[in-house]
Amino acid sequence: MAPKSPAQSLLEKADKKANASTGWFGSSSTKFEEAGDLYQQAANSFKIDKMFKEAGDCFAREAECREKCKEANDAANAWWNSAKAYKRGYPELAIQALSQTIVHFTQGGRFRQAADREKEIGQIYLQEQNDLRRACESFERAGDWYAQEDAIATANACFKDAADLHADLEEYPAAIARYEQVADHSLGSALTKYSVKEYWLRALLCCLAIPDVVTARRYMTKYSGMDTTFSSTREAKFIGALIDALDAGDQEAFTAAVFEFDQVVKLDNWKTAILLKIKRGIQDEPGLT
Fold first, then answer.
1. Which residues contact 2 (CB under 8 A, 6 or more apart)?
2. Quick check: is 108 in a domain?
3. What Rg do the C-alpha atoms of the chain give, in angstroms?
4. Do residues 253 and 244 touch, judged by C-beta distance below 8 A?
5. 231: left (phi over 0), alpha (psi -120 to 50) or beta
6. Percent helix, strand, coil in the chain (nearest 5)?
7. How far apart are CA 77 and CA 66, in angstroms?
8. Within a domain: residue 145?
9. pLDDT digit string (tens) for 228-245?
């Protein structure tokens, strides 16, 4: 029989301690505190062996011991360590562990930390599970918590990510509302005012994807009233050209406007995807050139 690994030996000690009787004079709090320490040691030992599922399990057991000792901060930290281990190949378990961390942070009024973990959940849903709906919900929840903690720039980044996902889900009115929210916040600061034209561009592209050219024209006027420099920007002129092409049903003019804009401002994947949807509204063609 192969000898037990140090991690396995520590796990057995932890289990034995957690399940031991406290006797007449023993303290259950002390028992679980010592068991928690052993689970933590076992978890770190499993991490050394690159056994991340086992490490995550041990950190989760540590967290449960900390909870039995009413050590909320230590429990939250253990759940987070569990999530970090689970993120190495076990995304659903990582989400569950992060959710437990958030419970402790929100109960303790630590909403900035809760927002950090909720944002992590959103990233896992997006990157590991391709679950746009749940990712969007997590980014919006994180954004709300950042905003109430006055971390406005971080909140706006989450709301922008949520807006992009609303658009990917073809929930264009919700996307427009989020882009406008971020733009409104950004207008008030000289440091972020430069980015407003990007948010308005995305909102206007969502209008054209509905498609609703009338609303797009109205929003162009609205945005120009909020910032008199907007109408002279490359983004506004681009939208104007797209609106004219859509009004005329001119696919060639649409493609030419996209090509010209892309020569100066390289289109990202999000813009390319939504422009494809808009173009298909003119005529059912497979791609942009």
1. none
2. no
3. 26
4. yes
5. alpha
6. 80, 0, 20
7. 10
8. no
9. 999 999 999 999 999 999
Q: How many structural domains are present in the chain?
A: 1
pLDDT at res. 1? 52
Q: Is 107 helix (H, G, I), strand (E, B) or coil?
A: helix
271 within a domain of the structure (yes/no):
yes
Asked if the model's pLDDT at residue 72 lies above 90, the reply is yes
pLDDT at 288: 42
SS3 284: coil
CB-based contacts of 42, cutoff 8 Å, min separation 6: 7, 8, 10, 11, 13, 14, 58
Quote the domain boundaries for residue 228.
170-289
Looking at the chain, the number of H-run helices and the number of E-run strands are 14, 0
Q: What is the CATH number of the domain that holds 193?
A: 1.25.40.10
Q: In whole angstroms, what is the distance from residue 151 CA to residue 118 CA?
A: 15
Confidence of residue 188 (pLDDT cuts 50, 70, 90): confident
Q: Are 239 and 233 in contact (CB under 8 A)?
A: no
Is the distance from CB of 118 to CB of 142 less than 8 angstroms?
Answer: yes
SS3 at position 137: helix
Q: Which element (helix H / strand E) includes 116? A: helix 111-127
Q: What is the pTM of this model?
A: 0.89
CA distance 42 to 38: 6
Where does residue 221 rank: exposed (0-12), middle (13-18), buried (19+ CB within 10 A)?
exposed
Residue 65 lies in a domain: no
Structure tokens at 171: 């929930």
Of 166-170, 172-176, 183-187, the poorest mean pLDDT is in 183-187
Instruction: Extract the tokens encoding 2.
Output: 């192969």
